Amino acid sequence: MFKMKNLFVLLMIGSLNIVLFSNHASAQKNEPFTTYTFSALAMSTVNTVEATTVNGDLKVIGDAVLQTAVEMFVSGNSPAIRNKKWSDAEIKQELDKTFDIEVKVVGEKILIAAKQKPNVKNASFNITFKITVPKQMNTDLETTNGSVQISNLTGSQKLKTVNGSLKIENTSGKITGNTVNGSITVTNSNDDINLSTVNGSISETGCSGNINLKTVNGKVNRR
Description:
The strands form 2 sheets. Strands 1-2-3-6-9-5-11-13-15-17-19 form an 11-stranded mixed β-sheet. Strands 7-8-4-10-12-14-16-18 form an 8-stranded mixed β-sheet. Residues about 1-15 and about 20-30 have low confidence and may be disordered. The protein has 2 helices and 19 strands. It is about 5% helix and about 60% strand. The protein has 2 domains: about 1-140, no CATH class; about 145-223, no CATH class. It is mostly beta strands. The protein is globular, with a radius of gyration of 18 Å.
């Protein structure tokens, strides 16, 4: 992952804060490139997270938080890109050239998206989002090449990917998830669970309620 570290910038737009960290370059893991935070006031009408990306993961965590945080991670899509020394300006220029990125509150939703521009065939970077929200939250999450993970949530949850895994932990409500090429793990979750994959196994542990698990080429393990 690329991170921005040495230079600290805080932008305040209404109830949205954008935190940028910059280190001029090297590939780093597990630290966000950009963090967006929303105050409790800004989130007072929000009940749904709607997030999309193309080549990257989506992770939503429920927590007892006063501020909602959206962390955006940027990683190179090849060894050559990951090993290159990138400056702040170069990273930003490449992102602006290849992606339309939005993080905003609209009515009852927080909309998070990294969409590849129509004229771009192969972007240099992949974009992953990690989102921390109040526990009572619905989600609608979709990526193409990447995993989707949720934990500690209550509400209606929709998870979708094509090439990637699904992971659900400590979540209750109506949970719907599907992938084509990937495994599914669901743990300590309950109520109404419908999960499917075409090529992959499904593992269920400690769940209760109306549970429907389906795979075409794989095994279903329930404990």
